[in-house]
């Protein structure tokens, strides 16, 4: 099968009159400057799919339910209490139904792979399901239903605060010991969909002791390692009180942080931490929509990009699922605080949206353990833009991406994931069935 595009952002840059031959879910050949063959599907502009490096899929179902004032001083921690209350009710069927909808929406917005930071392992009372990896299996099944690429990151969670504090009752569903976790990861590995990747996610320095962190790393078997690093100021203060060091500093000093690692929400970092993350080649996992929604703070993106730091974006709480909006908000946060424009562009790539998109495709791929971009041999994860959106009128090259990120209202036409067209006309091919199942789950959950 071959797809023909008027224009495409290839690994080597923009090209015109492109023909991509797909075979076995991958790009088998790339021809440029050619006419379409009679059987080819014809499209407007092709971009590589964007990886979504950080998701808690189940939280999609509580989107919009935490936006009412709950008393004095709503913040991340009061939000977490509401989230924990929601967690108590979610069973395997709810989890799968919610995740399938979240993943279909990710594909519709231009994400083609998700890093699922999955910590909802056990039954509501903390007891094990008959299959300890039941919930991981539900995540894999949801990814398969929606057809999104999955990098599963089972979470290790053992403590309720720095220094090995006992977990609270609300955290019982997340908790494992190291041996139990190793068993869970192996069972989850056996459930991965095709082209699935598995890594590990020590939850945070709040939830994992230094000894546990060392013991966990071999369980990844070379796969990605993700950790929540410095999302909250209180988290930084508690870490300093515990160790004398800020959390990212602690990780860089005490753990073998390298290009396999992703530091989720490296929001609160100083100049030395920025320079060191960049030098190690670790990926900063930025979640601008959720970080804004939760009032986390602003990542120092200008300084980090100036240091050539790698980053990707994640939809995290999934309060809104929108690939372009994550990148737009990343830039807008800087504009609002620095009172300037095009602050995350570079001399080499002055188009702000295009620069952020290209960097997030590369960094997201590194973070999720896959090679991204449109080139021979890569997985056929492709997004086509919708030519009927007037926002794309007369645009070409990087201006197309800038218009997607900053201006378009219906940017995405088709999305292929592993060579299969999952989205057409901006709509997932199974949206009706996925929505119906979600509706049944929500009725039950919120009853
Ligand atoms: Zn998270």
UniProtKB/TrEMBL annotation:
Presence of the UniProt keyword Transport in the record = no
Identify the residues that the record assigns to the Formimidoylglutamate deiminase N-terminal domain, covering every copy: 6-43
A Pfam family it matches: Amidohydro_1
Keywords in UniProt for this one? Hydrolase, Metal-binding, Zinc
**Enzyme Commission number(s):** 3.5.3.13
**Domain Amidohydrolase-related as annotated: residue spans:** 46-419
| Superkingdom in the source lineage | Bacteria
Q: Give the required cofactors.
A: Zn(2+)
InterPro entries assigned? Amidohydro-rel, HutF, HutF-like_N, Metal-dep_hydrolase_composite, Metal_Hydrolase, Metallo-dep_hydrolases
Q: Name one GO molecular function term.
A: metal ion binding
Gene Ontology annotations for the cellular component aspect, listed alphabetically: cytosol
Name under which the protein is recorded: Formimidoylglutamate deiminase
- Source organism (scientific name): Sphingomonas suaedae
